[in-house]
Amino acid sequence: MSKVDRRITKSQKSIKKAVTELMSEKNYDDITIQDIADRADVNRGTIYLHYVDKYDLLDKMIEEHIINLRELCQSASDMTFQEGNYVWFEYFEQNYLFFSTMLASKGARFFRHRFLELVIQEYKPEVDTTKGKNKGFNEDIILQFFASAIVGSVEWWFKNGMPLPARVMAEQTGALLDRNLD
What region holds the HTH tetR-type domain (predicted)? Predict the structure, then answer.
């Protein structure tokens, strides 16, 4: 595996930070490549060196966070819901500006959709409609219900300025999941 030039990594990090900050200030459609370049303190050409356009940049940022969340799920697979949720909420907290901006932005419906899909995929193995409380229920309805509840809880948490610590959010959402997925 070849080493990535630290200058490239630094430029990309600066560009992503600039986009996230700009999205928290104005509509994504109103943001220009020049706005991003100015905020990131790079040339426009540097942005085009790494991304086709601002939409490619946003897609890659979203994909990067989805991959990170998926990896966190895999690393937390042996944990309880509360412990696994804490890993997620800790990640959300560390990336507050990105997630709060993405979930609050009208232009970020794609992110919400990808996030919802990820939650459905990760909870699918936990749903058993052959026994217990969920016996006889439609699996798709159960998954949509829980995924919407999780995404909605995260949205609420961000929109209200994270009024509860990540640990409390993880414990309470995890307890609700445990209570209803048995």
Answer: 9-69
